[in-house]
Design brief:
The structure is a homodimer. By secondary structure, the first copy, chain A, is of the alpha/beta class. Chain A has one domain: Spore Coat Polysaccharide Biosynthesis Protein SpsA, Chain A, CATH 3.90.550. In chain A, β7 and β8 form a beta hairpin. Chain A is globular. In chain A, strands 2, 3, 4, 5, 6, 7, 8, 11, 12 and 13 form a 10-stranded mixed beta sheet that branches. A two-stranded antiparallel sheet of chain A has the order 9-10. At the A-B interface, β1, β4 and α4 of A face β1, β4 and α4 of B. β1 of chain A pairs parallel with β4 of chain B, so a sheet runs across the interface. The complex binds guanosine-5'-diphosphate (GDP) (2 copies) and manganese (II) ion (2 copies).
């Protein structure tokens, strides 16, 4: 059975899809949000940030997909410990429901340190596996009454507690904040921030030419010096002097933090595990959504933070 | 609180995906089947045939998506009347659960007589709308414990009651029986049968050449004299002298009756509402599944019957 079904559901349930709205004021309209996280590693700060979300928790369901690895075993133990606390009856921050899927397939790459998983030759297999994990999670947890899907990676550890309301207010089919990382700047001898996620981009003539000349199953990857695409990266557009509400249209998106109107997924937009217009996973998702007339947007000055290993 | 008191079940559910099997013996393994029907018109024989399925009904869930049209209103009234009878407590043929989705979008083509809806110029918009309806139904009803998805059109009125077991026994990712139609043969002056569904086919060099020369958003359609593709149609392969278990590999499938392993959908295979390798809807689905390494098969001598208007 699905997330948002009433507990004592009769064996027949009738849904009017036009009652499932996605508006600028989702709280007033009691719109439900499904937060989906592929989770290989558990970070306490991830959970703490979720708890701080000011969006009504009774309208939020959580879904996790966890790999069948030793790392996954550790992650699930830590996650369930936190869930047990939060979901206790009477806990003020209780979520509407939580689904945990344990993957049946082995992870193609066991060693997943940041350096290893970012190697270009590992990206295609890794991102295909991630795409299938995201799809499994999406296809089995999206319910008839879900209004919004918030994709949130497990290593996103800091963002404004009003994240959901802030992103929904743009009324965009798909919208991504800018994913940065805190680090200690040895030159400046102080804490600093730097761009982390390079998958949010505006297409370039160079990338289009490269794609046109590629073998049909080759993919374009972003953020690799060996393959300069000259796409405009949202990561590089951050300007603290500008409005936080500055919005740009994107052609590719990452999945670190991504708010999607559920109807975009319902129309069929998923994460291709195969090259789709030479794109894969979240970047292919943006292209597929665009083929379904749903465009993607980014907020270069609205920052969320990725864990620093 | 008392020792042995059952813990108040928290709203947390944990699924091990490798416990969700899809085997040749689905009944013995208690595998659940989700029957999905886009339903614009209700036929009593459709319901009567469902009731006769010998697969354990407690393992079967039904999902419907119904258009927001006058025709849809009539269909839903008739459907709910039958549901009310069948789902009564204690009814021997009761299904595990039933979900009815009412579409939020208008049907692009209101006049949907057989002749009108088969006109070639109407096919692209019509099949794109059908693709989105199928995806909405799929994405919102597929659960973490679903083993099989049986697509069944609402005008399929006759098939062996062992249909699910028969198809599952082939252990194929995707498998389609041959969809025929009964009619009165005026020449023979007797009841006869003829092929109905032309969407189950094996690709041809001609079709591939046509696709290669097409505009990128053009689609190939099957069963139109104006556009001869010379594909091998399963509809034409029926031979009552041969084994009922004869199996052929297919490149395109129809959705009239189609058994799909749920993991194929979970990997991301859906019904493209946009041209995908110049294919759309169910035919595009077969291609997409193939890109995800799940092949489609057909049973030319295993007949199911479409209503004759
Ligand atoms: N289910 C699942 N999740 C994974 C797997 N590998 C990584 N993840 C999660 O997927 C998200 C993105 O992966 P990550 O390694 O952080 O990617 P990166 O930050 O782009 O290098 C994170 O939430 C990970 O915890 C996997 O094999 N299976
Ligand atoms: N939800 C929904 N179902 C539809 C719509 N149009 C047709 N159907 C259903 O979709 C299936 C296929 O449509 P049908 O008109 O029979 O196609 P054909 O037999 O291939 O010409 C049938 O089960 C119809 O009842 C629609 O606009 N919305
Ligand atoms: Mn990460
Ligand atoms: Mn039909």
């Amino acid at each position: 059975s699905k997330h948002n079904e009433p507990a004592q559901a009769p064996p027949v349930v009738h849904y009017h899809m036009n009652n499932v709205t996605t508006s600028r004021n989702p709280v007033e309209n009691s719109e439900t949000v499904l937060i989906l996280t592929p989770l290989a590693r558990f970070y306490q700060e991830y959970w703490d940030s979720l708890l701080k979300l000011t969006y009504p928790h009774e309208l939020i369901s959580l879904g996790f997909i966890i790999p069948k690895t030793k790392e996954g075993n550790l992650a699930i133990t830590a996650l369930q410990k936190e869930i047990a606390k939060t979901q206790k009856k009477g806990h003020g921050k209780r979520f509407a429901s939580i689904t945990i899927l344990r993957q049946d397939t082995e992870s193609p790459l066991q060693n997943q340190g940041e350096a290893e998983r970012h190697k270009m030759e590992n990206q295609k297999a890794r991102r295909a596996a991630m795409a299938k994990a995201r799809n499994s999670l999406l296809f089995t947890t999206l319910g008839p009454t879900t209004s919004w899907v918030l994709w949130m990676d497990s290593d996103i550890i800091e963002y404004p507690p009003t994240l959901i309301q802030d992103l929904a207010a743009f009324d965009a089919p798909i919208i991504a904040p800018n994913c940065f990382q805190r680090f200690y700047n040895n030159e400046k001898k102080s804490q600093d921030i730097r761009p982390y996620d390079f998958n949010n981009w505006v297409d370039s003539p160079t990338a289009k030419e490269m794609a046109a000349k590629m073998g049909k199953d080759d993919i374009l990857l972003e953020g690799y010096a060996e393959m300069p695409t000259y796409r405009s990266l949202m990561a590089m557009m951050y300007d603290p002097a500008q409005e936080i509400g500055t919005k740009v249209k994107l052609d590719g998106v990452g999945g670190a933090v991504l708010l999607v109107k559920a109807e975009v997924h319902r129309d069929g937009a998923m994460f291709p595990a195969f090259p789709f217009y030479h794109l894969i996973e979240t970047e292919g998702f943006a292209k597929m959504a665009s083929r379904l007339n749903s465009e993607s947007f980014g907020l270069p000055n609205y920052l969320v933070y990725h864990y620093n290993e």
